[in-house]
User: What shape does this take?
Amino acid sequence: MLEATATALHLIETGRLIGRGDQEELFLPEPEKKIGEDQCAQKTPNHWEKAFAALDEAIAAARHDPEATQSLFNLLMWGRRDAECLRRTQALMTEVGIPSTWYHI
Assistant: This one.
């Protein structure tokens, strides 16, 4: 039975047998798509680049805005309140030039 089905599909795909019914196109091979040069040149978005760019923006804003500083601090400390995490987060924020007086636990 499977062999008969495979033979019928092959005959439909090669055009030697004409398919009938509403779903005939499901058994036909897809038409060849030509890709233009403009489509090849399009760069696939890199989500890591976007994430790092957003992080750079958040750090730049935190250097000048106490509310942005507190938001960034809260994000970095999310789910962690131990002393080691606090020390590392404070060191990181100091390293990138964010005033330590603008954030608190």
Notes: The radius of gyration is 30 Å. Residues 58-102 form one domain. The first helix runs from residue 2 to 14.
